[in-house]
Amino acid sequence: MATRRLIHSVRGYSKTACRAIKLTEMAQPATSTGPMYSTQRGGPSRNKSTSKSNTEMPIKCLSTAAVNQRQDRTLEELVFDPRGELCNNNSNAARDNAEFERAINQLNSLQSNEATLLHSVNNPKKNPKLDTLKYLERSGLTMDTLQKLSFIHVSGSKGKGSTCALTESLLRHHGAHTGFYTSPHLVATNERIRVDGQPMSKAKFAKTFWKVFNRLKESQGVEQDMPAYFKFVTILAFHVFVEEQVDVALLEVGIGGEYDCTNVVPNVSTVGIVSLGLEHTDLLGKTLGEIAWQKAGIIKPGSHVFTNVDQPECLEVICQRAQEKKAVLHVVPPTREYFRSEIGAKLWDSFNEIIHLNGSLAIQLASDWLSRTAGPLHHDYNLDKVKLEPKMLLGLQNAHWPGRCQLVEYKGLRLHLDGAHTVESMTVCTEWFVKNIKQSSCPKILIFNRTRGTEYRPLLTLLIRCCDFDMVCFTPNVAFPETTVPSQLMVRISMQNQLLRAKDFATQWTEVCKKENKPDRGQVFDSVTEVFQAIRERYDRNSGQQLEVLVTGSIHLLGATISALSFMEESRT
């Protein structure tokens, strides 16, 4: 009964706040004095004069419109740096890349975190958090040192990475020196660790990797006593954030929450839980309630917890876990409520699905941290009012999260990139894709794969219903059929098993097509390169006709797509 009253009161708060909404007036000068981000640190300067100019900059909307095609830019640049704000003039790029690949080759030799977590779930004597603490100490990082860092911890089924990315941008636009740890990566592992919004360089990744790896290797009590892949990279991220002395680090949970190795951080006063769905059921539980229990495991005593979860059975569990930790739970209002004014409505249409879904949660997380921190970063934001401050607006508009509801134009292709892998996220993805192609008469192509799980027929059904694709391609998450480049390898799943899964997808697609009375155009390919070779053979790239290509089902598939197209273009030129 107490839990139901808590849910009711929180929902009441949201409704009251919605009625009190007010969109702040926004200064919009006619000219700009320079780029929003420093090309060296990837974020605004922390001195007062620069901080002022950041809040007065002209508005640059994060739009669902495609990035304008630029012949002199690579696909990787268009995906990761669509505005062309970063400086890429590293004369040692070849050497740095070789050192990076050597580090990744060693990292790939470590056991999969997925296998480790499954073992820990089935082995109650195994405590993954104590295991992580052991390796932290061996790597030279004590809990006393980690305690000095401030974290915002975020869990959930879909949108935790984008919520972290938005929150990081909001805090950076308030002058915070930020860290951000996320997974998985698109193309390269260094993307997982970011400082001031930018992935750490490959050179620094390799240098820090060997420092931590050698310490752990030298302190082994027994052979092979090393942390698994994900656990190792998590420890690596902590070392980077300590070295950088970040003001705050955004920490995205890997799998679950309760037993996730990120859940060792002590100094967490602000917690986020994004939308929940059935995923990783072999690890987290078969019901939404069981999954909610795992996700709410990151709640710390006395913390402020913010969520956009709306399923009653999930909210009830989250409320119970919050009460156990004497934490305060807030259900955030819909992001749309921040844009009810006339000017707000115009801005709303310019934002992409990431902001529509998770913008409110990010605003609340950032506002809470800024309200509770001391020193020059402190801001007295009133969380009971749904009001969008100028710096918050700029943080949303300049946020960028590659590979999530992202549309990129490249060499005659309109690439619709989204790593949706649950029913909830695929629903968002297909609705976004349909909206993008509404006025298009160009050929529609689907490229699909899913890394794990068996309940994928609902995903295929959503894709079949969204449009009649002219080509449907199932492929493993590999750019090339045979590669020895460490960063291109899928260590967890053999090539043979990936091909078997691709064939199974094609079989399931055929069956769903019959049920939905739709034409079956499914094909299986050995690699993403072969997919695009088939596309180029069928459609003349010189015809002037753009192809609508939806790539979805797996973040790793998106990375393979970027690598494959980049390689094909290099080979062509």
From TrEMBL:
Pathway: Cofactor biosynthesis; tetrahydrofolylpolyglutamate biosynthesis
SUPFAM superfamilies, per database record: MurD-like peptide ligases, catalytic domain (SSF53623), MurD-like peptide ligases, peptide-binding domain (SSF53244)
Residue numbers binding ATP: R404, D418
Cellular component, GO annotation: cytosol; mitochondrial inner membrane; mitochondrial matrix
Database matches in InterPro entries: Folylpolyglutamate_synth, Folylpolyglutamate_synth_CS, Folylpolyglutamate_synth_euk, Mur-like_cat_sf, Mur_ligase_C_dom_sf
EC number: 6.3.2.17
Cofactors required: a monovalent cation
Keyword entries, A-Z: ATP-binding, Cytoplasm, Ligase, Magnesium, Membrane, Metal-binding, Mitochondrion, Mitochondrion inner membrane, Nucleotide-binding, One-carbon metabolism
Catalytic activity: (6S)-5,6,7,8-tetrahydrofolyl-(gamma-L-Glu)(n) + L-glutamate + ATP = (6S)-5,6,7,8-tetrahydrofolyl-(gamma-L-Glu)(n+1) + ADP + phosphate + H(+)
Keyword Nucleotide-binding in annotation: yes
Function statement: Catalyzes conversion of folates to polyglutamate derivatives allowing concentration of folate compounds in the cell and the intracellular retention of these cofactors, which are important substrates for most of the folate-dependent enzymes that are involved in one-carbon transfer reactions involved in purine, pyrimidine and amino acid synthesis.
Protein name: Folylpolyglutamate synthase
Biological source species: Drosophila madeirensis
